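ARCHIVE CARD
Drawer: 12
Card no.: 0347
Subject: one protein chain, sequence and derived structure
Cross-reference: see card 0346
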Amino acid sequence: MESLLTQLLEEQRKTNQLLLMLVEALAQEDADPDAVPATYMDGSRVS
């Protein structure tokens, strides 16, 4: 039972990370539509 709960929590954590990245990407879109993105969708910085 504990293993199932651990798996569910891990999947929820992944979902939360994806939602946070989506929110951040949408927030960046409003700043300047012509600006070069500062991060990739996985959160890593563009070099």
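Annotation on reverse: Residues 1-47 form one domain. The CA atoms of residues 38 and 44 lie 9 Å apart.
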